[in-house]
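ok so for the tutorial part 2 we go from a plain amino acid sequence to predicted structure tokens. step 1 is just haveing the sequence, like this:
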Amino acid sequence: MAKKETGRTVKIVCKNKKAFHDYHIEATYEAGMVLRGPEVKSLRAGKANLKDGYAQIDNRGELYLHNVHISFYVFATHNPNEPRRVRKLLLHKRELKKLIGKLREKGFALIPLKIYFIANGKAKIELGLARGKKLYDKRASLKEKQSNRELQRAMRHNII
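step 2 — the prediction. this is what the tokens look like for a chain of 160 residues:
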């Protein structure tokens, strides 16, 4: 599934659809990932899960990805990867400083939104600076989505 996004070809590996239901996404950031060989092969096969993942800045000012499951590559002959290992993320220093300031505020978290490959073959991850939704916010967003869907359906059938 190749898609052109901001002038370059992108192959999306996996998306975190639940993140948009559970969080208000304030801003998004694109980061590189430090991966091992078998992990890249698994990502190319689409074997990843972002459901419980989050990113965290450690005390040295480096960004790490936790709880993201990249499955074991079946045909790997040596150095098998641990599926839920902590992976380092690569961001520019000015973006990291901005994130450190935002994450110190109460209620913010860094959530992985999608993993994809860009045209030159490098794996990237899109992180969302997110604030948790309350239950009534989730209900309101579901109602809004449903009404928009009905409106689109009515416009398609020329009812309106």
